[in-house]
């Protein structure tokens, strides 16, 4: 399982980027967060810091 970010719900606030202990979240060229799947360790921290509900674990 890995975190997925809904680009339509992401506001590019960056809160998930700073909190990810695996450094698995970055911004793409459109300033939307995305998960580097090979780095994601399925910890779920990003779920709790995203106030917009844009992140799920699938």
Automatic annotation (TrEMBL):
InterPro entries found in the cross-reference section: 4Fe4S_Fe-S-bd, 4Fe4S_Fe_S_CS
Organism domain of life: Archaea
Protein name: Ferredoxin
PROSITE patterns: 4FE4S_FER_1 (PS00198), 4FE4S_FER_2 (PS51379)
Domain 4Fe-4S ferredoxin-type, chain residue ranges per copy: 1-30, 31-58
Source organism (scientific name): Methanosarcina barkeri MS
GO molecular function: oxidoreductase activity
């Amino acid at each position: 399982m890995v975190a997925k970010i809904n680009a339509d719900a992401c506001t590019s606030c960056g809160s998930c980027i700073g909190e990810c202990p695996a450094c698995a979240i970055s911004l793409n060229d459109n300033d939307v967060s995305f998960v580097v799947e090979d780095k994601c360790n399925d910890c779920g921290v990003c779920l709790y810091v995203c106030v917009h509900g844009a992140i799920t674990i699938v």
